[in-house]
Specification:
Blueprint: E1 2-5, H1 20-31, E2 35-39, H2 44-47, E3 60-62, E4 67-70, E5 73-77, H3 82-95, E6 99-102, E7 107-109, H4 116-119, E8 140-143, H5 149-156, E9 161-166, E10 171-176, H6 181-187, E11 195-199, H7 205-208, E12 213-217, E13 228-230, H8 234-247
Parallel strand pairs: 1-2, 1-11, 2-3, 11-12, 12-13
Antiparallel strand pairs: 3-4, 4-5, 6-7, 6-8, 8-10, 9-10
Helix pairs in contact: 1-8
Length: about 250
């Protein structure tokens, strides 16, 4: 069985690398004959530092599906069309929005250094921080709407793009039209109904509805789509991984 794991808030807590306990349980999952796949909102660049070296070549989906990698190689990158980029630039300019914009590797960032997202931004210094106009293509956008949340959401909803609002961080996470975690997983050959999904937020919904069984970590309304809900604690997550790993052994 394939086991698909979101990272932040699911098996990685407070932006830290996977704990020894989580790593041991993932290794046990593999020993039981299962395949481990990671699916995160982070681009692949920022996903790698959270993982132990031995797992950095595992199949993975980044940027909510915009990036897909396997065996240490990027196999798919989906960028915004030029028209959508212009719309997003106009919104940024109109409301003077801080942002994080990712290309296929480098990025532009104007948000606060105090924001949690900044602490997870290219910690290994693998990429270049550049100005927005220097990015040749735009793959993923995070906007910090502040007091303009309602107006920005309404404007974005008029565009053919994928939008996820993370209220706890007060950010809007934007991906190209039709791109989500399930879209990325399908590019890795994952088949609907033949995987177990673990996640904790709205951006996990597309893979939850395609999974054989699913686990929501923590208290989120997306739990309505899952088979099980567990507490947002390492112990509870480890126990749920162990349970499903044994069930499908």
């Amino acid at each position: 069985m394939k086991f698909v794991f979101d990272l932040d808030g699911t098996i990685s807590f407070k932006g830290k690398p996977l704990s020894t306990g989580i790593i041991a349980e993932l290794e046990n999952c593999i020993v039981n004959g299962h395949e481990v796949i990671f699916a995160s909102a982070r681009p692949i660049r920022d996903l790698l530092p959270v993982l132990p070296e031995a797992m950095q070549t595992f199949p993975m989906v980044g940027g909510n599906g915009a990036f897909v990698a396997n065996a240490g190689e990027m196999i798919a990158v989906t960028a915004f069309q030029t028209e959508m980029v212009e719309h997003i630039r106009h919104l940024i300019s109109t409301y003077k929005l801080p942002y994080l914009v990712d290309s296929n590797w480098d990025y532009a960032y104007t948000g606060s250094e105090a924001h949690p997202i900044y602490r997870n931004l290219d910690p290994l210094k693998l990429a270049k921080k550049v100005t927005l106009d220097k990015l040749q293509e735009i793959v993923k956008v995070v906007l910090f709407p502040g007091e303009h949340l309602k107006e920005v959401v309404e404007a974005l909803q008029q565009l053919p793009i994928s939008i996820y609002e993370h209220t706890s961080e007060n950010i809007l996470d934007i991906s190209p039209n039709g791109i989500d975690k399930w879209n990325g997983l399908s590019k890795l050959g994952v088949v609907a109904g033949e995987f177990i999904a673990f996640g904790n937020d709205a951006n996990d919904a597309p893979m939850f509805v395609k999974a054989k069984e699913s686990v929501c970590v923590g208290d989120h309304r997306v739990s309505e789509l899952t088979t099980m809900q567990v507490a947002s604690s390492e112990e509870a997550v480890i126990a749920s991984i162990r349970s499903y790993s044994a069930k499908y052994k």
